[in-house]
Amino acid sequence: EVQLVESGGGLVQPGGSLRLSCAASGFTFSGYWMSWVRQAPGKGLEWMANIKDDGSEKHYLDSVKGRFSISRDNAKNSLFLQMNSLRAEDTAVYYCTRGGKERFDRWGQGALVTVSS
Amino acid sequence: DIQMTQSPSTLSASVGDRVTITCRASQSISSWLAWYHQKPGKAPKLLIYKASTLESGVPSRFSGSGSGTEFTLTISSLQPDDFATYYCQQYNSYPWTFGQGTKVEIK
Fold it and tell me: Do residue B55 and residue A110 have CB atoms under 8 angstroms apart?
């Protein structure tokens, strides 16, 4: 069974940093693009970033480019999102998703990130 | 960026109704469109991709159609489990973008 489990969410002050992790299991992690998608409270879905199966290609939403960094460790079946210079508008549930070259076919349960003083 | 606009924003329907949701793209996206639904407090779930291909395990009452800039998601006979918010998503060009969502409520 495919499982994606996010961790690392929490409360952070504006300007602070946080690193999200996603542990993948039940599929050949190194064979898939992976992505992060977020959802602000009561709002819709917003794609953040994706990374190619071998890590050689990455894409970002303009509003997070230079602040967020997506990476992966295929040996540990893990996906990461390093978030720096966090703003109040980054407050959201962050979902780890399988796919992202095209559709997102599996989603984690989400990790809540709250940016507030 | 490609803007995705869904209509209606909210839809009230009864069990057994045929339901149609429309998604319009601000420019042509060929057939590079996916549909998801999401229940409160849960992660979204993929229903359809490439505009009309049913994801494995998704009931056949769901169908998708369209190409270019106009797309539809149809539920042939609404079931209790289908009351949720539905999103379309384009993957024709970066950044990937979603529609604002359509909430399907019980009438």
Answer: no
